[in-house]
Amino acid sequence: MVDKVDANSPLSQVGLGSHVEIDLIDEQGHAERMAFDLVPAQQANVSRGLLSADAPLGKAVRGKFVGALVPYPMGDIRQIRIVSVAQANVTAPPDAEARRAEVLKKALDDAERTNAQMFASSFSGKWGDYDPDGVDEWEE
Questions:
Q1: What are 128's strand-pairing partners?
Q2: What are the pLDDT digits (tens) for 80-108?
Q3: How far is CA 6 from CA 10, 42, 68, 84, in A?
Q4: Cα separation of 123 and 112, whole Å?
Q5: What residue spans of the chain are helical by DSSP H?
Q6: What residue spans define the domains of the chain?
């Protein structure tokens, strides 16, 4: 059964900034309700109900209208029914940009440390070898 839709409603199509309710329909036709806000990848946080528009599920529903049945073969799920679309009440946490920058800095530092360890473990010079274990003592 498809919920009634107002064809004149601008919120009947899924897009960025939409709050979406879907039914995940399995092989036997059983449906499980799921709701999420569709957000840009940098704001995604599935535990908070923020799904990236670039995730497979996000791509499957983006641009579709309320009532649409969308093929979605994932595990025992075979299709998705778009139940409702509303304006999401999404705001990024005030420290989101700082947290992303911190994660990126840590990843870059870890990559630099790994590169130094690889170099140290493979280099042998006329004045002696580098000690790759000494790299672990670099300041975090």
A1: 125
A2: 999 999 998 766 566 667 777 888 899 99
A3: 9, 32, 14, 11
A4: 16
A5: 56-61, 96-122
A6: 10-87, 96-137
CA dihedral of 10, 34, 100, 40, whole degrees rounded to 10: -30
DSSP E strands in 1-140: the ranges are 18-26, 31-39, 50-52, 69-74, 77-87, 124-125, 128-129
- Pairwise CA distance, residues 111 & 106, whole Å: 9
Torsion angles phi and psi, residue 12, rounded to 5: -100, -5
**Residue 3 to residues 57, 81, 85, Cα–Cα distance (Å):** 21, 10, 11
Rounded percentage of the chain residues whose pLDDT exceeds 90:
49
> How many residues in total does the chain contain?
140
- For residue 130, name the pLDDT band (cuts at 50, 70, 90): low
Asked if CATH classification 3.40.190.10 holds for the domain at 10-87, the reply, yes or no, is: no
Displacement of CA 135 from its chain's centroid (Å): 34
Q: What is the mean pLDDT of residues 60-74?
A: 95
Contact 63, 14 (CB under 8 A): yes
Name the residue type at position 112: E
| pTM for this predicted structure | 0.59
